[in-house]
Specification:
CATH class of the largest domain: Alpha Beta
Number of strands: 12
Bound molecules: nicotinamide-adenine-dinucleotide
Radius of gyration: 20 Å
CATH superfamily of the largest domain: Leucine Dehydrogenase, chain A, domain 1
Helix content: 40-55%
Length: 416
């Protein structure tokens, strides 16, 4: 993946474009350029071999004018403050676009979870939670899963937070296992939202969704669930990939079986009846809908021109660079931007938090009904803005998000 521009530079450029289009006051623009708070922590744990393991982590809180900070925690060797800051800013816009009462935050630890034991991951998660304890909490900042963190990670965070508090606080984190207060539908929510956006985009451009061909880059939580749901809705999944490479079958593949193969072998590659292709080739696959669901900067000016999909629904955060955006726009690709297309996860996280605060548990149908309504409304709001301002879906979503946050800042005023 290209590293030509840092994620934070891209986030700043996006904010600049939205601010310009909105005629945003300079003071508010300046305020939104930097996070309200960033905490760097050095997490030291005992490794299984008895030695010290030392990891750098952070929690970045961008803006909370519309409600408590909210955002995932990422474990990856590439995690750094620049990336986490960008992700925290995108969370602010995302919560505003989907219209839930949260601000944006993100956290991360620079580590290689694939090389760590479960015990080491648990100790690292608990130590990290204790080190950011003062700035998180149900009314301050509510973490959630992201790349290489999952429901188990959230359970450790909840337990550590609750042990320090002295009582159980399920509402301090979302994306938990259902047995300890997690919501029905949370595990699939991001992907369901991404597929709802792809479906609405198909309606908008006049493409038949049922039978549409789909390629998915990244076969983790978001990618695998997006492939599964699209398959269940009658789409034909022609290509998928993970960090080890990609597979292609023009006749379509069954994502459930590919998932079983990945669980057994650790990779999607070598799944029977498929051609092995590179990650670049997955992006360039002949298909109607492309779902990037891996990491940032996958679609760049080098490969954007090769994309054949008519619709892109961004499951990942920041998968497309601004230069690639221009190329895709000129090619007439209908792109549903990340801050809309992957907002389903934070939306059901919000529902989980509400259920926890009320000590309630909603059935799956209730969760999905509310999610469907929220996603369809946000999609319509963004399309309407794009038409009115004659701009791309990305700029329209950014404008909508930035405007809602700016309105909240102005209404609250400054203290003292
Ligand atoms: P995950 O760790 O479950 O999956 C990531 C997948 O990407 C893995 O299959 C990995 O093999 C693959 N991958 C890594 N590098 C790759 C490469 N170079 N090429 C192709 N595949 C590669 O993570 P996730 O939770 O599915 O998150 C994926 C993206 O979606 C991230 O950008 C994340 O920020 C975003 N996102 C996640 C959620 C959520 O609820 N989990 C919500 C919103 C956005």
């Amino acid at each position: 993946m290209s590293k030509e521009q840092s994620a934070y530079c891209i986030a700043l450029e996006q904010l600049r474009l939205a601010a310009e289009q909105l005629n945003l006051e300079d003071g508010i623009h300046q305020m939104l350029k930097v996070p309200k708070r960033s905490l760097n922590v050095c997490i030291t744990i005992r490794m299984d071999n008895g030695e010290f393991g030392v990891f750098n982590g952070c929690r970045v809180q961008h803006m909370d004018a519309r409600g408590p900070f909210k955002g995932g925690i990422r474990y990856h060797p590439r995690v750094n403050l620049d990336e986490v800051t960008a992700l925290s800013m995108w969370m602010t816009w995302k919560c505003a676009v989907i219209d839930i009462p949260y601000g944006g935050a993100k956290g991360g630890i620079c580590c290689n979870p694939k090389e760590m034991s479960k015990g080491e991951l648990e100790r690292m998660t608990r130590r990290y939670t204790s080190m950011i304890f003062d700035i998180i909490g149900p009314y301050r900042d509510v973490p959630a899963p992201d790349v290489y963190t999952d429901a188990q990670t959230m359970a450790w965070i909840m337990d550590t937070y609750s042990q320090i508090k002295g009582y159980s606080v399920p509402e301090c984190v979302t994306g938990k296992p259902i047995s300890i207060g997690g919501s029905e539908g949370r595990a699939e929510a991001t992907s369901l939202g991404t597929d709802i956006c792809a479906r609405e985009a198909a309606k908008t451009v006049g493409l038949k969704f049922k039978g549409a061909t789909v390629a998915v880059q990244g076969f983790g939580n978001v990618g695998w669930n997006a492939a599964k749901i699209a398959y269940d809705w009658g789409c034909k999944i022609v290509a998928v990939s993970d960090s080890t490479g990609g597979i292609y079958n023009a006749k379509g593949l069954n994502p459930y079986k590919v998932y079983d193969h990945k669980v057994k072998t650790g990779s999607v590659v070598n799944y029977k009846g498929c051609e092995t292709i590179t990650n670049e080739e997955v992006l360039a696959t002949k298909c109607d809908i492309l779902i990037p669901a891996a990491l940032e900067n996958s679609i760049t000016k080098e490969n954007a021109d090769k994309i054949k999909a008519k619709i892109i629904s961004e499951g990942a955060n920041g998968p497309t660079t601004p230069e690639a955006d221009k190329v895709l726009c000129e090619k007439g690709v209908f792109l549903v931007p990340d801050i809309l297309a992957n907002a389903g996860g934070v939306t059901v996280s919000y529902y989980e938090w509400v259920q926890n605060l009320e000590r309630d548990h909603w059935p799956l149908e209730e969760v999905n009904r509310r999610l469907e309504t929220k996603m369809a409304k946000a999609f319509k709001d963004v399309v309407t803005t794009a038409k009115k301002d004659k701009c791309s879906m990305r700029l329209a979503a950014l404008m909508l998000g930035v405007r809602r946050v700016a309105d909240a800042i102005k209404t609250l005023g400054l203290w003292p």
